[in-house]
Amino acid sequence: MLDLFTFTILVIAFVAALVDTSLGMCYGTILSPILLIAGYKPAIVVPTVLFSQLIVDIGGGLTHTKVKNFTRKDTKVALLVAIPSSIMVFFGVFSNVNLPEMITKTYVAIVILLIGLLLLLGIKLRKTSKRLVFLSGIAGFNKGFMGGGFGPVVVSGQIVLNHDVRPSVSIGDIAEIPVCIIGLLAFAILKKLSFTPIYLIVSIPAFIASLIGPHITVKMSNMHYAEKLIGVSSFFMGLAIILKILV
What we know:
Number of strands: 0
Number of domains: 1
Radius of gyration: 16 Å
Shape: globular
Order of helices and strands: HHHHHHHHHHH
Number of helices: 11
Helix content: over 70%
């Protein structure tokens, strides 16, 4: 029978994936702390999130493409996000294994909070490849270190750099696919990677939600509203991480 604990995790994984594939963020940011609170060790939590995120990104990526959130013209930007973030995810995993969490959590919180603040204030920066590569590298590092913090940087960062909401969200999901694969390989190399039932518990509802989320993105016809929603999400996620560090 399905116990209350398992049911709760199923629901949270579904909601996290729905938010992630519709807004391009929050899957790992929601799921990682929940699994930690539930008693799972960081060495289990991060690869669990990486594995299930990979499933979510594949499902979401296919659906984003089907509903035309992602088109051929977005490929170049997706590569500019995917390549540096895929490189930096290895260093994030290395930090997860070797460095104190507080150092990276503090900088992750500051970056996410500042990007959210820029969106809320309506401040836009000139879009350049160097800026996008820099933000993508930070996002990849975040993913490898703590399982979350990829979407808030990549999606919000693209919008700050004057990229439309729909492709920004879809690029965040699609570019994250190689990041998750390399992150899992890095864990296998640097630390023993053992698959446990929690992988499937979170992956199944997350995959189902990933087929729904992109349709919500399409319905966000009011781009200004979507930008503010993503800005609020980023700002409060950064604030929440800072408060968690201080408390």
